[in-house]
Design goal:
heterodimer; A: alpha/beta; Rossmann fold; Dihydrodipicolinate Reductase, domain 2; nine-stranded mixed sheet; six-stranded parallel sheet; 15 helices; about 20% strand; B: alpha/beta; seven-stranded mixed sheet; EC 1.1.1.49 (chain A); G6P_DH (chain A); oxidoreductase (chain A); NADP (chain A); Glucose-6-phosphate 1-dehydrogenase (chain A)
Chain lengths: ~500, ~525
């Protein structure tokens, strides 16, 4: 793998993503960050734009406009963002050029005149009249209504295109989400709305489609005849660390399971789309969701982490020790849920979604466990095959399989076929999820964004469970900070058919 | 799991796994008789292998080694001749003495009854000799097979212990001669006493084929004509006959490699799952595959003969016909590609491509399954075919060539592989030599990795018409340059029957990146 030069990357990218015809690259683009003073803007959006800019991946005539209530300047934004931008000494010139494209406007989110002012600012930028506009709503949901209405009424480009990027939360249940979607669809067309689920921007999540549909090997075994269960895992090794106040309003199911894990499930379970066009892909994802019934409470285990008295620092603190968490909160910080996709391909195969905070490791992965070998001739010494796609950390694909025990033996032993990105692709830096996604918005590619009907189906699946949990104020099972989570979760997983032998440990083959 | 085991652990595990406690008694006396003890095979392979097994404690404790040949030799002379091949370290000197202390040598004539009576008396006189089990290794040219086997049968069979006879190729040179030999052997020994060696069956990755296929659910549903486009079995050597072409010239590459080694690998790739891992269940399935293969036709074969490369160095300058031991104008093939079809429900229409040759561009033996194209492709035909490769030698490995998203901001498929390279994964595991495994199997009475009479017959049935046609018509083999890929006609044939070579991918050792 030879690393490409910047212009080569750019050339390839344009060929692949921009499509030769709609190369709108020469026209002016304005990227408007609403909520420019906030944490998300400072830590994620400005840095991401900078990385894209310095790598030459943004259109040449780009202007970035910040908008927020605070009385700020570009200089102050620069100062606030710099710690997150990883600027090297050689990039200082480029950095100046980047901030030259920036401007800032303060205004109020619920006041029409503020947005009129924003609009005239946009129009006065060089080429501003005809520029394409990208609005990024880095805002709390409380102001979504006002801001989106004001954008629609005052800030739409009439000559270029307009695209609006939203961050979660997209409501907190089916009803609230439907209200928000109805509101947005009054203002914008579906092809103007870009709902971010940043998991869809991850290398290995994006790879799922290529792996599945680019390899004949997997075609015949990717179904209920050969797959015993699918496990989708998200684990974090830390707790809320004093920011539990926000989290407590949502809980782990809304925060991780209903969006990130369910999106990965869709990519694993969906039929092959008619093409790789965004709507063909999203049609298939919606179809999967439509075949999933809401989970029953007996297929769910909820947990909440408690401090580990033997731990150090943060590990001593339980969720309820976070001063921002309401006393006696029953919000789960851990959840395992089993879903079933009731269609011809997957009927009866458990899809196990596991996620939690303050666990024993950081890991996000997709694991397909295959069925036992029928008619085994090796005296039951074969473990089940597993295909694992590790999303983070250390991107990898590996296939747990049986091989002859090396040497004078003839018995099967576990091993794996391995593709660890770090070892194979030494010089390739994998772009951050936000980089890919923002680039996709420029390109007008909605494949990796959540469509309204997808969102609706996702909420349909989890809303009954969420309402039941909240109505009953179910007490989550306590688990120790740094543990595997409640053992009840392992029991559930085992009950529905996942087999954990514990006989195998993944070995990093390149360091052993 | 991959920790190196101590000697006694290995031995314990081995016994558990291989030696059936009922049948095998560690304390029993065994006598290993090497017929042809003065020859090259004995010196370079058999004595050294016995030594390695002995020093690793893998042989039964009471084992005696008896050499037999025409020459007037001594154990010391044999020791001197074998030493360069035995890889003895200084710490093993004592063990080596113990090994040779268990060696004796008898000289005699292969056709002479009295010589074998003498041999028998010698064995009976060894401690525990009357009850000992006897293993006869025929490291002999085929010309004396008849006499020696007859004499063993008449004079040297143990009456109290068991007797096993190990036979090396050539097992005849066509169907008729092979049948004659088999008939002769079966008039003397029962099938479970006969161990025909095909040393490819002793190789780690060849033995692994069964575990890979039948121990992994993922391969079950794709191991058939619906998913496999073709199977390529390859054996390549980077050197020519190097002055030993005289022997080779009588056989040619088809008899030397294709009809035995490659066909055995084909059987293991193509066979149905056996009822059990017992030797005869496995061999039943292999025979069944062979029975479904019609004889190869000349139109599905490309033959080649290497010529010197004027730009090459040393041996590479010399063609096959430059070997002084090769008859002038020989049309013997040093390279062959043949396409076989297994006419059964699983494989109908799938080409099995057998390729082998000397003086080629690399040393390699591998099994390669190329899978069909993805049906209903959605990636603009940018997907290459998946391949599963089992590399037998050198550098044992299993890898699956597959498509993955091109890393980075792209969404297009790119070739990559899932890899299991033994050297990297099993750092401290020493893979035993094929002969070590096979001789051990004879001690254990496991015939799985040996060629049964009916297997041999079927193998000859498949190739004999072709061989007779070649012998009769003497078609001129296509010349190819020493160190090349072989004749381009072979690539054309392979392509014509359906193998797709894109040449877009090169295997990368991920550990050297």
């Amino acid at each position: 793998m030879e690393p490409l030069t910047r212009s080569e990357v750019f050339g390839e990218l344009r060929k692949e993503l921009y499509g030769d015809k709609q190369s709108s690259h020469s026209s002016t683009h304005i990227f408007i960050i609403l909520g420019a003073s906030g944490d998300l803007a400072k830590k994620k959006i400005y840095p991401t734009l900078w990385w894209l800019f310095k790598d030459g991946l943004l259109p040449e005539d780009i202007y970035i406009v910040g908008f927020a209530r605070s009385d700020l300047t570009v200089e102050k934004i620069k100062a606030a963002c710099l710690p997150h931008m990883k600027v090297t000494d050689e990039e200082l010139d480029s950095l100046s050029a980047f901030f030259k494209t920036n401007s800032y406007l303060s205004g109020r989110y619920d006041v029409g005149s503020s947005f009129e002012r924003l609009n005239s600012h946009l129009s006065f930028l060089p080429g501003g009249e005809t520029a394409n506009r990208l609005f990024y709503l880095a805002l709390p949901p409380t102001v979504y209504h006002h801001v989106s209405t004001n954008i629609r009424n005052h800030c739409m480009s009439c000559k270029g295109w307009n695209r609006v990027i939203f961050e979660k939360p997209f409501g907190h249940d089916l009803q609230s989400s439907q209200e928000l979607s109805a509101h947005l669809s009054n203002l914008f067309k579906e092809d103007q709305i870009y709902r971010i689920d940043h998991y869809l921007g991850k290398e290995m999540v994006q790879n799922l489609m290529v792996l599945r549909f680019g390899n004949r090997l997997f075609g015949p075994i990717w179904n209920r005849n050969s797959v015993a269960s699918v496990v989708l895992t998200f684990k974090e090794p830390f707790g809320t660390q004093g920011r539990g106040g926000y989290f407590d309003g949502f809980g782990i199911i809304r925060d991780v399971m209903q969006n990130h894990l369910l999106q990965m499930l869709c990519l694993i379970a969906m039929e092959k789309p008619a093409s790789t066009s965004p709507d063909d892909v999203r049609n298939e994802k919606v179809k999967v969701l439509k075949c999933i019934a809401p989970p029953n409470m007996e297929d769910v285990v909820l947990g909440q982490y408690a401090g580990d008295p033997g731990g150090e620092g943060e590990a001593k603190l339980g969720y309820l020790d976070d001063p921002t968490v309401p006393k006696g909160s029953c919000t789960p910080t851990f959840a395992t849920a089993v879903l079933y996709v009731q269609n011809e391909r997957w009927d009866g195969v458990p899809f196990i979604l596991r996620c939690g905070k303050a666990l024993n490791e950081r890991k996000a992965e997709v694991r397909l466990q295959f069925t036992d070998v029928p008619g085994d001739i090796f005296a039951d010494r074969c473990q089940r095959n597993e295909l694992v796609v590790r999303v983070q950390p250390d991107e990898a694909i590996y296939l747990k399989m049986m091989t002859k025990r090396p040497g004078v033996f003839f018995s099967p032993e576990e091993t794996e076929l391995d593709l660890t990105y770090k070892s194979r692709y030494k010089n390739v830096t994998l772009p951050d999820a936000y980089e890919r996604l923002i680039l996709d918005v420029f390109c007008g590619n909605q494949m990796h964004f959540v469509r309204s009907d997808e969102l609706r189906e996702a909420w349909r699946i989890f809303t009954p469970l969420l309402h039941q949990i909240e109505a009953a104020k179910r007490q989550p099972i306590p688990y120790t900070y740094g543990s595997r989570g409640p053992s009840e979760s392992d029991d559930l997983i085992q009950r529905v058919g996942f087999r954990y032998e514990g006989t195998y440990k993944w070995v990093q083959p390149h360091t052993s | 799991m991959t920790l190196p085991l101590s000697r006694s652990e290995v031995f314990g595990e081995l016994r558990q796994e291989l030696y059936d406690d009922e049948k095998f008694h560690q304390s029993d006396v065994h006598i290993f008789i090497i017929m042809g003890a003065s020859g090259d095979l004995a010196k370079k392979k058999i004595y050294p292998t016995l030594w390695w097994l002995f020093k690793d404690g893998l042989l039964p404790e009471e084992t005696y080694f008896v050499g037999f040949a025409r020459s007037d030799l001594t154990v010391d002379a044999i020791r001197t001749a074998c030493m360069p091949f035995m890889k003895v370290t200084e710490t093993e000197a004592e063990r080596l003495s113990a090994f040779f202390a268990r060696n004796t040598y008898i000289s005699g004539k292969y056709a002479d009854d009295a010589s074998f009576s003498k041999l028998n008396a010698h064995m009976l006189a060894l401690p525990g000799g009357p009850e000992a089990n006897r293993l006869f290794y025929l490291a002999l040219p085929p010309t004396v097979y008849h006499d020696v086997t007859k004499n063993i049968k008449q004079h040297c069979m143990s009456t109290k212990g068991w007797n096993r006879v190990i036979v090396e190729k050539p097992f005849g040179h066509d169907l008729q001669s092979s049948e004659e030999l088999s008939t002769h052997l079966s008039s003397l020994f029962s099938e479970d006493q006969i161990y025909r060696i095909d040393h490819y069956l002793g190789k780690e990755m060849v033995q692994n084929l069964m575990v890979l296929r039948f121990g992994n659910r993922i391969f079950g549903p794709i191991w058939n004509r619906d998913s496999v486009a073709c199977v390529v079995l390859t054996f390549k050597e980077p050197f020519g006959t190097q002055g030993r072409g005289g022997y080779f010239n009588d056989f040619g590459i088809i008899r030397d490699v294709m009809q035995n080694h490659l066909l055995q690998m084909l059987c293991l790739v193509a066979m149905e799952k056996p009822a059990s891992t017992s030797s005869d269940d496995v061999r039943d399935e292999k025979v069944k595959v062979l029975k479904c293969i019609p004889p190869v036709t000349m139109s599905d074969v490309v033959l080649g003969q290497y010529v010197g490369n004027p730009e090459g160095e040393g041996d590479a300058k010399l063609g096959y016909l430059d070997d002084p031991t090769v008859p002038k104008g020989s049309t013997q093939a040093t390279f062959a590609t043949a396409v076989l079809y297994v006419h059964n429900e699983r494989w109908d229409g799938v080409p099995f491509i057998l390729r082998c040759g000397k003086a080629l561009n690399e040393r390699k033996a591998e099994v390669r399954l190329q899978f069909t194209d993805v049906p209903g492709d959605i990636f603009d035909n940018k997907c290459q075919r998946n391949e599963l490769v089992v590399r037998v030698q050198p550098n044992e490995a299993i890898y699956a060539k597959m498509m993955s998203k091109k890393p980075g901001v792209y969404f297009s498929p790119e070739e990559t592989e899932l890899d299991l390279t033994y050297k990297s994964r099993y750092k401290d595991v020493k893979l035993p030599d094929a002969y070590e495994r096979l001789i051990l199997d004879v001690f254990c009475g496991s015939q799985m990795h040996f060629v049964r009479s009916d297997e041999l017959r079927e193998a000859w049935r498949i190739f004999t018409p072709l061989l007779h046609q070649i012998d009769k018509e003497k078609p001129k083999p296509i010349p190819y340059k020493y160190g090349s890929r072989g004749p381009s006609e072979a690539d054309d044939l392979v392509k014509r029957v359906g193998f797709r070579y894109e040449g877009t991918y090169k295997w990368v050792n991920p550990h050297k990146l």
